[in-house]
Write a structure and sequence with these properties.
heterodimer, A: 311 residues, Rossmann fold, 29% strand, B: 249 residues, 6 helices
């Protein structure tokens, strides 16, 4: 038996979450296939075929970018696999439990460790506890917290097989998509993330402070829930239990106090820097480096110092 | 239009959870419990749809122990019409919960099933999607806007990289995200009135569905702690340490 990884892709571009999920899949079993569904799937499949350890890639283009259509395409494939995994992106989180319901399997969300083919570790209570669970189902359906796993390497390309899509129900229709355009790295996989909180006071100030710093560092921009709720930053930049989970090499939190639910989203960062004027801010309890001060004076000084080390 | 809204009693979001010393689970003894915040958003949306005369009947359902009646009282105080407790002392997993909801939907015939996108205890983010699969109906997860027009719902979804608008035929399952609305605080008179309203109670076992857990919890442990690092006084010191000590610049 083998493992099937459902690719996440935006048109022809394969999301890095896919290769990280393949890494997790290889911990279950050595036979890993990847399936790419939807618009420009065949192009994205070419990238998927070069992921090290992948046996074959399946691609179907005539599948609408809607969960019901994806489900219909996957159900006939399911019997060939002992496990079906997807990254914990919005697509994976939408799809895996639905597919599990269809197959009468208990889905497993947000796997952070593969103990064996049936046993997994996953976070609960905003990552304040970890549960180790063993499934008694014949099949595993799981989302993988991809940021925890390193990308699988690159190898020589395997075969890409075009599959026919099944007829899908027509009870849902995609009306429009507003994708935020950005030249910056994607938040979930960026090596450096700079992030702002409500202390920044306005959308204009949020951008004026964070954007030059992010440009200088080649960083992605994140935000606390409070900053997003206040309208300073777009919803998809929210980091925390209910937003994005990040694991960059360097996370710089500016004017973020560090609510439990925000800390849940940054626990796996390698180095956390906190800049806050409140010495009692909880974020200092988990930061590797803390600097107490007003961001208005600290950030300009930081910019100058970064110049000095050639950033 | 009839709405079924699901509410879960969970550890209050402000309380930090404690892991039991024997790693058999978490210790909730004497801790404050509240309605799952995402479900509160779902209740608020259902009540608003009723106030706009889109919905005519809103039924709140909780699955859990007798104390979950408190959570249903909160929903009643916020403005739902009826409340049902599906009583069980077991900590049911999402698949079992979804089977109960799907069975209930078979007799109640709601046009819309609303619930939070995830409960903040198990963080599974699964029940809505499973219910939709079991009922073979469309789903719209992570909703930040819901417009109902006749037998369709137009939903703006919060997805990676932006927003997505989909239209789904009713009946449908919609799970709510943070920015859909700001739930009201129930007024004191409404809280008093809610105390007198009846709550129907049915036993989970009476639904005749398979509730056995498929996932065996082997252990619940504390995650590795990050320890506090060092405080620096200047930006120069910070950049110097990030560069030479941490090696991340």
């Amino acid at each position: 038996m083998a493992v099937l990884v459902i690719a996440d892709h935006r048109g022809a571009t394969l999301h890095e979450a896919t290769t990280r999920t393949v890494h997790a899949a290889l911990r279950i079993c050595g036979e890993v296939d990847v399936v790419v569904l939807g618009t420009r799937a065949q192009e994205a499949a070419q990238t998927a075929a070069t992921i090290c350890g992948v046996r074959q890639v399946l691609a179907a283009e005539d599948v609408a970018d809607l969960v019901e259509a994806e489900e219909a395409a996957l159900v006939p494939l399911a019997e060939h696999y002992e496990a079906i995994l997807a990254p914990s992106t919005s697509v994976g989180k939408d799809l895996i439990p639905r597919l599990a319901g269809r197959l009468d399997v208990a889905p497993i969300s947000d796997v952070v460790e593969v103990v064996d083919a049936k046993t997994f570790v996953r976070p609960i209570y905003a990552s304040n506890a970890l549960e180790t669970i063993r499934t008694s189902d014949a099949k595993v359906l799981a989302t993988v917290r991809h940021t925890i796993f390193p990308p699988a390497g690159k190898g020589s390309p395997c075969a890409v097989k075009i599959i026919a899509a099944s007829a899908a129900p027509t009870t849902s229709r995609l009306m429009s998509a507003q994708q935020a355009k950005s030249d910056r790295p994607e938040l979930g996989s960026a090596r450096i993330v700079v992030s702002g909180g409500r202390a920044l006071g306005s959308e204009a100030e949020f951008r004026a402070v964070l954007e030059p710093l992010a440009d200088k560092l080649g960083a992605a921009i994140g935000a606390s829930r409070a900053a997003v709720d206040a309208g300073y930053a777009p919803n998809d930049s929210q980091i925390g239990q209910t937003g994005k989970i990040v694991a960059p090499d360097l996370y710089i939190a500016i004017g973020i106090s560090g609510a439990i639910q925000h800390l849940a989203g940054i626990k796996d960062a390698k180095v956390i820097v906190a800049i806050n004027k409140d010495p009692e801010a909880p974020i200092f309890q988990i930061a590797d480096y803390g600097l107490i001060g007003e961001y208005q004076s600290v950030i300009p000084a930081l910019m100058v110092e970064l110049d000095n080390v050639g950033r | 239009m009839k709405i079924l809204v699901l509410v879960k009693r969970v550890l209050d979001f402000n309380v930090k959870v404690r892991v039991k010393a024997d790693e058999s689970g978490v210790d909730l003894t004497n801790l404050k419990m509240s309605m799952n915040p995402f479900d509160e958003i779902a209740v608020e949306e259902a009540v608003r749809l009723k106030e706009k005369a889109v919905a005519t009947d809103v039924l709140a359902v909780s699955i859990g122990p007798a104390q979950a009646q408190d959570t249903l009282r909160t929903a009643l105080a916020m403005g739902v019409d009826r409340a049902l407790l599906i009583n069980t002392d077991e900590d049911l997993q999402p698949l079992a919960v979804a089977k109960l909801v799907a069975t209930l939907a078979g007799s109640e015939k709601p046009d819309l099933i609303l619930m939070g996108k995830q409960a903040i205890d198990g963080d599974n983010n699964a029940v809505g999607q499973i219910v939709a699969a079991l009922l073979d109906c469309p789903q719209a997860t992570f909703a930040s806007s819901i417009e109902i027009e006749q037998d369709q719902a137009t939903v703006i979804r919060e997805v990676d990289g932006g927003l997505q608008t989909i239209s789904v035929d009713l009946p449908a399952v919609i799970t709510t995200d943070l920015r859909l609305n700001e739930p009201r605080f129930a007024s004191l008179p409404n809280i008093m009135k809610a105390r007198k309203k009846p709550i129907e109670i049915k036993s989970a076992a009476a639904f005749g569905v398979d509730l056995a857990p498929r996932l065996q919890v082997l252990r619940v442990s504390e995650p590795p702690r990050r320890k506090a690092g060092i405080m620096v006084d200047t930006a120069a010191d910070l950049v110097g340490r990030l560069h030479s000590e941490a090696g991340v610049l």
